[in-house]
Amino acid sequence: MLGAKSDPVDALAKLAVVLRVVQTTMVALFAHKHTEGGVVGVLRSTHPLLGLAALAVFAFGQALNAGIYHAIGKNGVYYGVKLGKTIPWATGFPFNVCGHPQYVGCVLTLWGAFAPAIANGPAWLALLPGLWSLFYVFSGIVESDGSKGAVPAMNTRKK
């Protein structure tokens, strides 16, 4: 996965793909174990309006995440600014929607994905996306620099 001359941003991007596959697999296995009929059973027993609402929340979260990649690219998404890469200042979509749109997008995606399982399974299932959301909130606070989520180009930010 990592070569001797591997770009650190590329390495982080590859690691992120592996982590997403592991996370998705674990969530699916968790849902299978703790809900009647697993993922398929949950989808079949979800009220259509809840299903549509969950799909809309999920889709908007993914739109924010896709917007991040389009606005600042792989170097911006995977901490390239911390690794000496120049990242363009971005103020359009998705930065004009909310601060930290990548984290907001992830949280919306989580809740959109989990809503049917929470509605059809034990209430404590909400703890998993709830805790996961808190991690994103914490990350947003730690990374906050008052820019409302906009990403500055390296060494060009006005003080």
Question: What labels describe this entry?
Answer:
elongated; mainly alpha; 159 residues; disordered C terminus; 5 helices
Strand and helix layout:
Elements: H1 8-34, H2 38-45, H3 48-77, H4 101-120, H5 127-143
Helix pairs in contact: 3-4, 4-5
Any overview of this molecule?
There is one protein chain. With 159 residues, the protein is mostly helical. It has one domain (8-143). It is built from 5 helices and no strands. Helix 4 runs antiparallel to helix 5 (127-143). The longest helix has 30 residues, at 48-77. The radius of gyration is 18 Å and the shape is elongated. The N and C termini lie far apart (39 Å).
Give a short overview.
The protein is mainly alpha-helical and 159 residues long.
- Can you give the helix content as a percent range? 55-70%
Taking Cα atoms only, what radius of gyration do you get, to the nearest Å? 18 Å
The coarse overall form would be elongated
Q: Terminal Cα separation, in Å?
A: 39 Å
**Biggest β-sheet strands, sense, barrel:** none
- Any idea how many domains? 1
Secondary structure category: mainly alpha
Share in β-strands: under 5%
Low-confidence stretches: 148-159
Q: Encode the helix/strand succession as letters.
A: HHHHH
- Number of helices, counting only DSSP H or I runs of 4 residues or more: 5
Mean pLDDT: 83
Tell me how many strands there are: 0
